[in-house]
Design goal:
With 480 residues, the protein is of the alpha/beta class. The chain has three domains: 52 residues, no CATH class; 257 residues, Aspartate Aminotransferase, domain 2 (3-Layer(aba) Sandwich); 128 residues, Aspartate Aminotransferase, domain 1 (Alpha-Beta Complex), CATH 3.90.1150.10. The chain contains 17 helices and twelve strands. The strands form three sheets. Strands 1-7-6-5-4-2-3 form a seven-stranded mixed sheet, sandwiched between helices. A three-stranded antiparallel sheet has the order 10-12-11, covered by helices on one side. The protein starts with a helix and ends in a 7-residue tail after the last helix. The protein binds pyridoxal-5'-phosphate. Pyridoxal-5'-phosphate binds next to helix 7. The site of pyridoxal-5'-phosphate (PLP) has 14 residues, from helix 7.
C-alpha cells in the first residue's frame, strides 16, 4: 500500500472554492511573518483519495469491533456505542474546563455521583477521579500511603508485591521511592501466608495485591492477609484494574483493602489501548481521605463546588479534573446497568472464563486446576515437547482470524497463555475460539512445522511472520 504522500500530485486539492468576491489580502498582512511557515509539507490529494486511503488503513487493523480479543490481564471487551454518544452531547463535550463552578453544576453533580457509585461498588469511603490511567492511579495511591506515614512521622521504606503482580505495581513503588519486595505464590497460585509473614514487618508501608490475582484466581485467604498486614499497621492496596470479576459480588473494601484503583478504560465502557484517554480513579478508606488529591467535589446546600482546602492533600496530579469524557461514559454505563446489571456482568465474565477453561484443559496444560474468575492461565509446555512455542501458538491463532491472548505473562508460569474471554462474548464466539485452539493443539502434535511457521499469508488472517529481531534492530515503518 502506498503512503498518502506517494499518492499526491502537485496541485491536486480536496476542495475547490468559488472565486473570491471580496478584495484579497496577502496572508503576510494578516499573520506576523515569524508565525508563518514557509512551506507546508502536506500530501496533495483529492477528497476521494483521502477517504479511500484512511478507510483502507482502518480495515488493516484488528480491534474489538472486528473480532474476538481474548487478552488476559487487560480486559478487552466490547463497550456499548451509546455511551460514546452520551459523552458527545454538547453540554458535556463543549464544557470548558475553566468554566465557572456555578455554570458547571451538572458536570460536578455527575462526577460527585460517580464517586458515590464507585464507593458503593468497591466498599470505599472516598474517591478521586483525577488519575488518567491505572498506573497513574497506583502512583497516586502510593503517594497517599507515603503522605500518610510522613504525617504520622513513621519511616517506612518497603512495598510488598506478589510474584504474579502486574509490572506496573513494582514500577509504581519504585517511582515513589520505595523498595519493592516480592512474595512467593503457593501451589494453589495464591499468596503464600508463610512467605508473607517472613517479609512483613514495620518497614513495610504497603502490600499491593490484585484480587482476583494475575492468574485469574480468587485470593481466598484475603481476610487473613489483610489482618496480618494491619497487625503491622501496613496498608493494603488493591489493584482493581479488572473489576469485571467482582462487580456486585464482593467489595475490596469489605476484604480489608485500604486503597483501590479502578480502570474505567477496561471495566467501565471506555475502550483501552491506542493511547487513551483513560481514567484510573482511586478509592480510599476514611483514614486516607485527607490525603486525596485536590480539588475535591463538595456539596453544600444543593450546590456543588470544588474544594481546594485540604492541607494534607498530595495536591493536584492531573490537569483540571481528570479525563471528563471517560467519566461520562462510565457514569452512563453504570446508570444503564444498575446493581442487577452489574452483577450479571460479573456472573457472565466468570462463567465465560470457566466455560473456555473447561473446554481447553484437556488439550493444554492447566497449571492451577480450580475454578477461575474472569480469566485463566494455560501453559504451552506440552506443545513445547514437539518444539512448538507458545509464541507459535499465538501466531497460528492469527491464521484462524483471532487476536492472540496475552502470552509469557504472568512470569511464574512457563510458556504462559493468559485468556480473558470477557462477559460481552456469545457462546458461539467462545466455541469458535475453542475449536481453533483445539485444532492448533492437534496440529502441534501432528504437524509442528505448520504451527512453527505461522502465520501464513494465505490463511484467513492474511498475515506473514514478522522478523521480530530485524524489526526491533532496523525498524522499517513503510508498508510494502
Ligand atoms: C492494565 C492494568 C494496569 C495498568 O493500567 P494502565 O491504565 O495501563 O496504566 C495495572 N494493573 C493491572 C492488573 C492491569 O490489568
Amino acid at each position: 500500500m502506498k503512503l498518502i504522500f506517494e499518492k499526491g500530485r502537485p496541485g491536486r486539492v480536496g476542495i475547490s472554492l468559488p472565486d473570491c468576491d471580496v478584495p484579497e489580502k496577502r496572508i503576510e498582512e494578516l499573520i506576523p511573518r515569524d508565525s508563518l511557515r514557509s512551506k507546508l509539507n502536506l500530501p496533495e490529494v483529492s477528497e476521494v483519495e483521502v477517504v479511500r486511503h484512511y478507510t483502507k488503513l482502518s480495515t488493516r487493523n484488528y480491534g474489538i469491533d472486528t473480532g474476538f480479543y481474548p487478552l488476559g490481564s487487560c480486559t478487552m471487551k466490547y463497550n456499548p456505542k451509546v455511551n460514546e454518544e452520551i459523552a458527545k452531547l454538547p453540554g458535556f463535550k463543549s464544557l470548558h474546563p475553566l468554566q465557572n463552578e456555578k455554570l458547571a453544576q451538572g458536570a460536578l453533580e455527575l462526577m460527585s455521583h460517580l464517586e458515590q457509585i464507585l464507593c458503593e461498588i468497591t466498599g470505599m469511603d472516598g474517591f478521586t477521579l483525577q488519575p488518567a490511567a491505572g498506573a497513574h492511579g497506583e502512583l497516586a495511591g502510593l503517594m497517599m500511603v507515603k503522605a500518610c506515614f510522613e504525617h504520622k512521622k513513621e519511616k517506612r521504606t518497603k512495598i510488598i508485591v506478589p510474584d504474579s503482580s502486574h509490572g506496573t505495581n513494582p514500577a509504581s513503588a519504585s517511582l515513589c521511592g520505595y523498595e519493592s519486595i516480592t512474595v512467593k505464590s503457593n501451589e494453589r497460585g495464591t499468596v503464600d501466608l508463610k512467605e508473607l509473614k517472613k517479609v512483613l514487618n514495620e518497614d513495610v508501608a504497603c502490600f499491593m495485591l490484585t484480587n482476583p490475582n494475575t492468574l485469574g484466581l480468587f485470593e481466598e485467604e484475603i481476610l487473613e492477609i489483610s489482618a496480618l498486614a494491619h497487625n503491622k499497621r501496613t496498608l493494603i492496596y488493591c489493584d482493581g484494574a479488572n473489576m469485571n470479576a467482582l462487580l456486585g459480588m464482593a467489595r475490596p473494601g469489605d476484604m480489608g483493602f485500604d486503597i483501590i484503583h479502578l480502570n474505567l478504560h477496561k471495566t467501565f465502557s471506555t475502550p483501552h489501548g491506542g493511547g487513551g484517554p483513560g481514567s484510573g480513579p482511586v478509592g480510599v478508606k476514611k483514614s486516607l481521605i485527607p490525603f486525596l488529591p485536590r480539588p475535591s467535589i463538595r456539596k453544600e446546600k444543593d450546590k456543588y463546588r470544588l474544594d481546594y482546602d485540604s492541607p494534607l492533600s498530595i495536591g493536584r496530579i492531573k490537569s483540571f479534573y481528570g479525563n471528563f469524557s471517560v467519566l461520562v461514559k462510565a457514569y452512563a454505563y453504570l446508570r444503564a446497568l444498575g446493581p442487577e446489571g452489574l452483577r450479571e456482568v460479573a456472573e457472565n465474565a466468570v462463567l465465560n472464563a470457566n466455560y473456555l477453561m473447561e473446554k481447553l484443559k484437556s488439550y493444554y496444560h492447566l497449571p492451577f486446576d480450580r475454578i477461575c474468575m474472569h480469566e485463566f492461565v494455560l501453559s504451552g509446555k506440552r506443545q513445547l515437547e514437539k518444539g512448538v512455542y507458545t509464541n507459535d501458538i499465538a501466531k497460528r491463532l492469527l491464521d484462524y482470524g483471532f487476536h492472540a491472548p496475552t502470552i509469557y505473562f504472568p512470569l511464574i508460569v512457563s510458556e504462559a497463555i493468559m485468556i480473558e474471554p470477557t462477559e460481552t462474548e456469545s457462546k458461539e464466539t467462545l466455541d469458535e475460539f475453542a475449536e481453533a485452539m483445539i485444532k492448533i493443539a492437534k496440529e502441534a502434535e501432528e504437524n509442528p512445522e505448520l504451527v512453527k511457521t505461522s502465520p501464513h499469508p494465505s490463511a484467513e488472517g492474511g498475515r506473514s511472520r514478522l522478523d521480530a529481531v530485524t524489526a526491533a534492530r532496523k525498524p522499517n515503518l513503510r508498508w510494502k
